[in-house]
Specification:
alpha/beta, Nucleotidyltransferase, domain 5, Hypothetical protein af1432, 3 domains, 6-stranded mixed sheet, 5-stranded mixed sheet
Length: 514
């Protein structure tokens, strides 16, 4: 069901505030807000808002986001925030795509936005964006075999082949209607020469994915988001779509011919085309035609589902304990041949230690999930080398495409894994406090203790261990141990005491010997 701005479904939201969830999509061209309610396990949108912000147009040659673009974005977010009063923060996600991926000063914008929004902005990688787009499309269309999904955004274009609700191939290419407008139509002038340059650039960008996508194959083709939506609407109005109201190659080529008869984007007059879409239409058409030509497409249908719908359905999966992040962790463990038994030992002990200090240190469920995943993955770096394997693990987690994780998620996970053993330095602490504050520091220390306690890699039960924390830097570990336990653990924990002092942490250890 398509919803316009300010539209509310007839059943309303009264009495269902606890079921509401929301997603904000900070695209390079437009910002979107979707508010939905859970209706018998399904996501039903009740509010949909969209504003043309053109954040990507504010990027200069050095990838610095202009103050004017930031101001447009923040003003839009202020209007969105006014609509979020009924949404618990844990049921809101705010995702950002290519413009903030590219911006060197993205942190400046994010910091200002954090004063407006009740939830931090998550910058997601291109392939994660593609996965979420596919999730949004697949949940808003009937099943129809293997699909090729194409989403032309402001700064990037995503290509996904999937079957049912599962993506098979995901790619994100650096071509979008705003970026290509700046590169080929910056003065607004229209010419066949400029259009052909844009067309050739898009075809070059696609060369790297054509082989794998063609080999995988597809049964149908679906497009989503603004460029494809606007193009389809114009073709329908002009009578250039087919009987299924799909975009066809022949209709697209005729539309391009018509657009190039005008000399300037301001002159474009097409039925069904909104005023704010004129400036980016030629670039969008060049990308779309390049896709048709390169992938030998004849027709493409349109889906209202897109990134924001995908984010909503991804949240629903998390509520149902079908979190794709946990599937990703399992896949990483298998790929890097993690010792599952050791991971389970460390994970269980880390869980018990966290529960003992959670109230004192204000650790929440998200912290519990992060610690659990870090404990599961703390040894993945061993697949590269034993020496400094914590650093190898951190590198893999920071730089891999991990479905379900935002860039900030991956950074926090990488930091905890990277600090789980060996010396602790103050510059590392400064980075951890900057990224996640004292809560992230606490998770690092808890994981270190769990790893130290399982240094023997034995299935033998640990002695009773009690952890208390005055604050993030004052800890007391009490161990109800036998003489044998003391012999096995005392040396390891004394070394850990010395290591934690590198962060100014006071770890006291009390032995209650039998």
């Amino acid at each position: 069901m398509t919803l316009n701005a300010e539209t509310v479904l007839e059943h309303g939201t009264q009495g269902a505030d606890e079921e509401l969830l929301a997603a904000i999509d900070l695209g390079s061209n437009s910002f979107h807000l979707a508010i939905a309610r859970l209706d018998h396990g399904e996501v039903r949108k009740v509010v949909a808002l969209s504003e043309k912000v053109q954040l990507g147009a504010g990027l200069d040659a050095d990838n610095q986001l202009s103050e004017a673009a930031q101001r447009r974005g923040l003003e839009c977010l202020s209007r969105f925030a006014a609509r979020l009063g009924s949404i618990p923060p844990e049921r809101l996600r705010v995702v950002a795509t290519n413009a903030l991926r590219q911006a060197e000063n993205a942190s400046v914008f994010i910091e200002q936005a954090s004063r407006i929004l009740p939830k931090p902005i998550e910058i997601i990688a291109g392939r994660e964006e593609a996965r979420l787009i596919y999730l949004g499309v697949s949940h808003t269309m009937p099943s129809g075999g293997k699909r090729l999904v194409i989403d032309i955004g402001g700064g990037s274009t995503e290509f996904i082949i999937g079957d049912g609700f599962e993506p098979i191939l995901t790619e994100s290419l650096q071509m979008g209607c705003v970026a290509f407008t700046q590169s080929f139509f910056s003065d607004g002038q229209l010419s066949s020469k400029a259009f052909n340059k844009a067309l050739a650039a898009a075809r070059r960008e696609m060369q790297g994915i054509l082989g794998s996508y063609t080999r995988q194959g597809w049964d149908g083709v679906v497009g989503s988001s603004g460029t494809i939506k606007a193009t389809r609407q114009v073709l329908i109005e002009l009578g250039l779509s087919n009987e299924k109201e799909e975009i066809t190659r022949s209709g697209l080529e005729k539309l391009v011919e018509q657009v190039l008869r005008w000399r300037h984007v301001d002159d474009i007059e097409l039925p069904g085309l909104k005023e704010d879409r004129k400036a980016v239409l030629p670039a969008g058409l060049a990308i779309l035609l390049a896709i048709f030509q390169s992938m030998d497409l004849t027709a493409l249908t349109y889906s209202d589902g897109a990134l924001r719908e995908g984010v909503l359905y991804d949240q629903l999966g998390r509520f149902r304990h079908e979190d794709v992040r946990d599937r990703s962790v399992s896949a990483l463990m298998a790929r890097y041949s993690v010792d599952v038994r050791q991971a389970e030992r460390v994970t269980e002990t880390a869980k018990q230690l966290r529960e003992q200090v959670a109230a004192r240190l204000l650790l929440d469920d998200e912290d519990a999930d992060l610690l659990r995943r870090a404990a599961s993955l703390h040894e993945i770096g061993l697949a590269i080398s034993h020496g400094a394997y914590q650093r190898h693990g951190a590198y893999l987690l920071e730089h891999s495409d991990v479905p379900g994780f935002s860039q900030s998620d991956q950074m926090r996970l990488a930091l905890v894994v990277g600090c789980h053993r060996r010396k602790l330095k103050m510059d590392g602490l400064a980075n951890i406090l900057k990224i996640g504050g004292q809560r992230l520091m606490a998770l690092c220390l808890i994981l270190r203790l769990a790893v130290a306690l399982h240094q023997a890699r034995s299935d033998q039960a640990l002695p009773e261990v009690t952890l208390r924390a005055t604050n993030a830097q004052e800890w007391r570990l009490t161990i109800d141990a036998s003489a044998e336990d003391w012999f096995m653990l005392a040396g390891v924990l004394e070394i850990e005491q010395a290591y934690q002092s590198g962060w100014g942490v006071g770890l006291s250890i009390k032995w209650a010997l039998d």
